[in-house]
Structures are given as structure tokens and as C-alpha cells.
């Protein structure tokens, strides 16, 4: 059976990508911190409890999995985001974003690239629409996502001759708990946000393309742009 590794698989986009891959008959190793709230009851789903910022533990787990499984898909989905004026961020928040959003995808790709070349596999990098624009309320977050997109595009040019498909997905504001600590959230109406299932549907669509044709970059946006400010007592 073909296997996949998905980071941030315990909720939101990563959870839905895991479900799509299971429906496509992949064995899924889902990395996350807490699977108690959203548990996938499927014989081919293997939850891996891991703090992604613990690089030694993370890389050890991935090496162990790849030594026993045929890895065909790496989905770098896990993300960390802190928003507000840059001077109000602390060093730990900046560090967490750089490690989670950029360093971890680079490291996991490096660890698995030989297997993915051998298997003509897929790398899905879940970036953000913020990678494509100026972000005055999230400079550091946008910079990490821009770095991920740049890495992803360059990597595709490097490995495409080996049959590896590198796909960058840029979702706009998605209705998950990602913005739970921010002073804003998605709008109330369904045409002001993306659903996590819709990002996973994009993955499913890409997987179903004929061999030899790659959708390497895709952007998902709601019809309307709207951000709702939270009341301070709700933060």
C-alpha cells in the first residue's frame, strides 16, 4: 500500500487532506499534537503525536516511518501564525513561525526526497495567499509563507525531471481555528472564507490528473474579501 505523511493532521486542513488521501487508498501517517477532538477512525490512519518544533523527535519519527513504508506523498500542512504589529511579537512567536512554516517543510522534504524520486511522488506545500502580497498585520507570517512558496517553486524545477510533483497551494482565509488568538477572523457569510474541505478537494483534484501533467500552483479565494474584527473581551 502507498503511504503518505501529513503534518498538522489533527484538525483543519490537515485533517481533511488526511481523509481525502484515505479515500484514495493511501495509508496516512498524520502528525499532530492532539487527536482527541478530531479522531479519524480508519484502519489506514496512523496518528503520530509530535511537537513539530522538536526537530530531533520529528526527524526520528519520519526516518522510522520511511524505513518501513513506501512514501508517495508528503503534505507539509502544519502552520503557525501570530498577527499584529511586528514590534509586538516576541522572539518565541517569530521562532515558532519560522520553524513550523519553513524549516520543517524543508527538513522533511530533504529526508524524504530520495523516496519520492524513486516513487515519482507528490509534495504538497500548503502555503497561503499572504505569500503573494504585502501583510502589514502579519509581516513575519507572510514572510515565512513567501519563503515556503519560493522553496516549493524552485524545488519543482529541481526535481521535475525525476517525476516528483511539487504542488504549492495558496488558500485565502480558511474557516478553521487557526485565527483563534488573532484580533480578527473570517467573515460570517460563506462567500467570505474557504472551507478546509475545499483545500483538500484541490489536493484530490490534483491527484487525479494524468501522469505527465502537473498543476504546480493553485490559489483558492472566496468570492468576497471580508475580515471581521473581534471584540477585545473575546480574545
Task: Compile the SSE list and pairings.
Layout: E1 3-7, H1 12-23, E2 27-32, E3 45-49, H2 55-68, E4 71-76, H3 91-118, E5 122-126, H4 139-159, E6 165-171, E7 184-186, H5 196-207, E8 217-220, E9 227-229
Parallel strand pairs: 1-2, 1-4, 2-3, 4-5, 5-6, 6-8
Antiparallel strand pairs: 7-9
Helix pairs in contact: 1-5, 2-3, 3-4
Describe this structure in words.
The structure is a single chain. By secondary structure, the protein is α/β, with parallel strands linked by helices. The protein has a single domain, classed as Rossmann fold. 37% of the residues lie in helices and 19% in strands. It has five helices and nine strands. The strands form two sheets. The protein has a seven-stranded parallel β-sheet with strand order 3-2-1-4-5-6-8, sandwiched between helices. A two-stranded antiparallel ribbon has the order 7-9. Strand 5, helix 4 and strand 6 form a beta-alpha-beta unit. It starts with a strand and ends in a 6-residue tail after the last strand.
Counted by DSSP, the helix tally is 5
Report the end-to-end length measured between terminal Cα atoms: 45 Å
Q: Rg to the nearest angstrom?
A: 17 Å
Summed over residues and divided by their number, the pLDDT gives a mean of: 94
Main attributes?
two-stranded antiparallel sheet; Rossmann fold; seven-stranded parallel β-sheet; alpha/beta; 235 residues; 5 helices
In short:
This protein is α/β, with parallel strands linked by helices and 235 residues long. The protein has helices at 12-23, 55-68, 91-118, 139-159, 196-207, and strands at residues 3-7, 27-32, 45-49, 71-76, 122-126, 165-171, 184-186, 217-220, 227-229.
Amino acid at each position: 500500500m502507498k503511504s503518505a505523511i501529513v503534518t498538522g493532521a489533527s484538525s483543519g486542513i490537515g485533517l481533511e487532506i488526511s481523509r481525502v488521501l484515505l479515500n484514495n487508498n493511501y495509508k496516512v501517517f498524520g502528525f499532530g499534537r492532539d487527536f482527541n477532538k478530531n479522531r479519524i477512525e480508519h484502519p489506514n490512519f496512523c496518528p503520530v503525536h509530535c511537537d513539530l518544533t522538536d526537530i530531533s523527535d520529528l526527524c526520528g519519527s519520519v526516518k522510522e516511518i520511511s524505513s518501513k513504508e513506501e512514501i508517495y506523498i508528503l503534505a507539509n500542512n502544519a502552520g503557525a501564525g501570530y498577527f499584529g504589529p511586528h514590534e509586538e511579537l516576541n522572539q518565541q512567536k517569530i521562532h515558532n513561525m519560522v520553524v513550523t512554516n519553513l524549516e520543517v517543510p524543508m527538513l522533511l522534504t530533504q529526508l524524504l526526497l530520495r523516496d519520492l524520486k524513486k516513487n515519482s511522488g507528490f509534495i504538497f506545500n500548503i502555503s497561503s495567499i499572504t505569500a503573494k502580497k504585502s501583510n502589514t498585520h502579519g509581516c513575519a507570517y507572510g514572510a515565512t509563507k513567501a519563503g515556503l512558496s519560493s522553496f516549493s517553486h524552485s524545488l519543482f524545477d529541481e526535481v521535475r525531471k525525476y517525476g516528483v510533483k511539487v504542488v504549492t497551494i495558496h488558500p485565502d482565509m480558511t474557516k478553521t481555528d487557526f485565527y483563534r488568538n488573532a484580533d480578527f477572523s473570517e467573515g460570517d457569510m460563506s462567500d467570505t472564507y474557504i472551507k478546509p474541505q475545499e483545500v483538500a478537494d484541490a489536493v484530490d483534484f490534483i491527484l487525479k490528473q494524468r501522469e505527465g501533467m502537473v498543476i504546480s500552483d493553485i490559489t483558492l479565494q472566496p468570492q468576497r474579501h471580508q475580515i471581521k474584527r473581534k471584540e477585545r473581551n473575546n480574545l
